[in-house]
Amino acid sequence: MTRKIDLIVIHCSASINGVSLFTGKLGDADFCTPAQEIDKWHAARGFRRNPNWCERQEPTLAHIGYHFVIYTAGAVLACRHLDEVGAHVHGYNAASIGICMIGTDSYSAEQWYCLKILIENLRKAYPRARVVGHRDLSPDTDGDGIVEPQEWLKTCPGFDVAGWLRGGLQAPAGHIFNSGVLPAGVLPYAPTTGGVKNGGNP
């Protein structure tokens, strides 16, 4: 790894909590993973990966701006190479790593566990890097040295990253997903052979 890293930035997908973003049926042409769904969103915003990096890592994801995506079931997908500049936080991409949690502000126990392990490993590799949430990089408009809620450009990742770090990387109260709160008809998981229209982990 040769790229200097100053920041590790945690994001959310701003999608319904607990819904995996898998769509279609495994093996069918319309099957889509969460990372592929985000890749479509980023393509629509004009993001494009360098073809050389794309060929080297995850060639089917030609637009995604994140380095990692953490699925609702806890799988961690490496998207952009760590030495590849991301496209996830304006003004900070050159020296940062972007991690996206599927959801908005409430995540599964598996996601929290995987985020903890990922952050621990990244901090070993980049001991001088600060770990922040996307919202923490909003402008400090009143100049008091603290980015306060009224100054956030986004609420992403939906939880206090500094507080999570102080708490030993344990899932914060109020941000652990409870499958009992999904809207009617929306399933967080689905069998590998079944079709999925609005969520589910094959």
Key attributes of the depicted protein:
five-stranded mixed β-sheet; Lysozyme-like; 202 residues; alpha/beta
Could you describe the 3D structure shown?
This protein has 202 residues and is of the alpha/beta class. It has one domain (7-178): Lysozyme-like (3-Layer(aba) Sandwich), CATH 3.40.80.10. It is built from four helices and five strands; from the N terminus they run βααβββαβα. It has helices at residues 34-44, 51-56, 109-125, 161-166, and strands spanning 7-12, 68-70, 76-78, 96-101, 130-133. It has a five-stranded mixed sheet. β2 and β3 form a beta hairpin. The longest helix is centred in the middle third of the chain and has 17 residues, at 109-125. The two termini are 33 Å apart. The model is unreliable at 186-202 (pLDDT under 50).
A few lines on this structure:
The protein is α/β, with parallel strands linked by helices. It is 20% helix and 11% strand. A hairpin with a 5-residue loop joins strand 2 and strand 3.
The helix tally amounts to 4
Helicity level? 10-25%
Q: How confident overall, as mean pLDDT?
A: 86
Q: In CATH, what is the homologous superfamily? A: Peptidoglycan recognition protein-like
- Using the alpha-carbon principal axes, give the shape: globular
CATH level 1 name: Alpha Beta
Strand order of the largest sheet: 3-2-4-1-5
| Structural class by sheet pairing and helices | alpha/beta
Q: What portion of the residues fall into strands of 2 or more residues? A: 5-15%
CATH architecture: 3-Layer(aba) Sandwich
Helices, strands, pairings?
Blueprint lengths: L6 E6 L21 H11 L6 H6 L11 E3 L5 E3 L17 E6 L7 H17 L4 E4 L27 H6 L36
Parallel strand pairs: 1-4, 1-5, 2-4
Antiparallel strand pairs: 2-3
